[in-house]
């Protein structure tokens, strides 16, 4: 089965899919192949629609989120399209699989107090802590995606202007950076990064691991989870938690939805409107917690 997974990985690389898509699709397909193996299906082309329905029921039993299961369906469909391209499979058993539509889960956010605790966790007296503080501050200052953070080059951050120039394949946007984040980034660039790249001064990446290579998404994610644990944050943290918190906190303080849409880089404002629902829920929680007659 592992040979199928490796071949699919090479196929995705040849299609120039994004690194995030490559990682998630490969992981999903490997999990699917393990499921088939545990049920005695030695070759994926022998699986039928019933087998796939059992697989997605299995994911639901594991309490996987609706978005994760939907992504798995896309991964498995793509995998069978690949097998059909090779002539190994004659049909795509995932083609007609329908998933039950559940209510869309609202994104997890941090309170302002939790955000402050998280940002204060890195020890800026050492190189790693200085870099980590700069990354966390920049994420919360701008609301950019983690993939955008690790793709940043030094030239994308204009410290004198207090502005970030974020480039994506579909669009470019300019986002202000608050002074504390500018200070943290400047400290990292001039005190730490300059030492890390001393043997490779042509390296363009802004955020590097301690070996002088561009930091990976997985590496950053481990960093955030560790600091969240140290900060005593028990919420389920995701790579986008600071992005969601950035948007909600702006909305709470009176920012216009259109401006938040621009900073987040949403093509459609309907993607940004989910934060209005988050704000409504937050207001209800505050009311129920503090109104003297709310619990009577």
Attribute tags:
2 domains, 4% strand, 3 strands, hpI Integrase, Chain A, 296 residues, 13 helices, three-stranded antiparallel sheet, DNA polymerase, domain 1
> Can you say what the CATH homologous superfamily of the largest domain is?
Intergrase catalytic core
Can you name the CATH architecture of the largest domain? Orthogonal Bundle
The shape is globular
Distance between the termini: 60 Å
The low-confidence parts are none
Rg (CA only): 22 Å
Widest sheet, order of strands:
1-2-3
Strand content: under 5%
Helix fraction bin: 55-70%
Question: How many strand units?
Answer: 3
Q: What is the count of helical runs?
A: 13
| Mean pLDDT over the residues | 87
Q: What count of domains describes the coordinates?
A: 2
Could you tell me the CATH topology label of the largest domain: hpI Integrase, Chain A
Model description:
The structure is a single chain. The protein is mainly α and 296 residues long. The protein has two domains: 2-86, Tyrosine recombinase, N-terminal domain (DNA polymerase, domain 1, Orthogonal Bundle); 112-289, Orthogonal Bundle (hpI Integrase, Chain A), CATH 1.10.443.10. Helix content is 57%, strand content 4%. The chain contains 13 helices and three strands; from the N terminus they run H-H-H-H-H-H-H-E-E-E-H-H-H-H-H-H. The protein has helices spanning 2-14, 19-38, 49-61, 66-86, 112-119, 127-142, 146-151, 179-196, 217-230, 241-252, 257-264, 269-272, 274-290; strands at 157-158, 163-167, 172-176. It has a three-stranded antiparallel β-sheet with strand order 1-2-3, with no helix packed on it. Strand 2 and strand 3 (172-176) form a beta hairpin. Helix 2 (19-38) crosses helix 4 (66-86), helix 6 packs antiparallel against helix 8 and helix 6 (127-142) crosses helix 10. It starts with a helix and ends in a 6-residue tail after the last helix. The relative contact order is 0.09. The mean pLDDT is 87.
């Amino acid at each position: 089965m592992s040979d199928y997974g490796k071949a699919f990985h090479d196929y995705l690389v040849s299609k120039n899919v994004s690194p995030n898509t490559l990682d998630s699709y490969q992981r999903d397909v490997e999990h699917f192949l393990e499921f088939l193996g545990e049920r005695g299906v030695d070759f994926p082309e022998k699986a039928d629609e019933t087998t796939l329905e059992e697989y997605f029921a299995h994911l639901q039993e594991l309490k996987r989120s609706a978005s994760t299961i939907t992504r798995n369906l896309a991964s498995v469909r793509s995998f069978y399209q690949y097998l059909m391209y090779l002539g190994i499979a004659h049909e795509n058993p995932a083609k007609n699989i329908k998933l039950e539509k559940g209510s869309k889960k609202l994104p997890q956010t941090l309170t302002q107090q939790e955000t402050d605790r998280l940002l204060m966790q890195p020890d800026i007296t050492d190189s790693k802590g200085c870099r980590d503080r700069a990354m966390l501050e920049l994420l919360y200052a701008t609301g950019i995606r983690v993939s955008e953070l690790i793709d940043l080059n030094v030239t994308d951050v204009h410290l004198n202007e207090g502005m970030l120039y974020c480039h994506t394949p579909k669009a470019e946007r300019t986002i202000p950076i608050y002074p504390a984040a500018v200070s943290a980034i400047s400290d990292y660039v001039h005190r730490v990064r300059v030492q890390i790249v001393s043997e490779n001064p042509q390296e363009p990446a802004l955020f590097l691991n301690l070996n002088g290579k561009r930091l990976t998404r997985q590496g950053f994610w481990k960093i955030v989870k560790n600091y969240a644990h140290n900060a005593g944050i028990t919420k389920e943290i995701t790579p986008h938690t600071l992005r969601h918190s950035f948007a909600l906190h702006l909305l709470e303080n009176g920012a216009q939805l259109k401006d938040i849409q621009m900073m987040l880089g949403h093509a459609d404002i309907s993607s940004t409107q989910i934060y209005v629902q988050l704000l409504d829920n937050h207001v209800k929680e505050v009311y129920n917690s503090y109104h003297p007659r709310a619990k009577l």
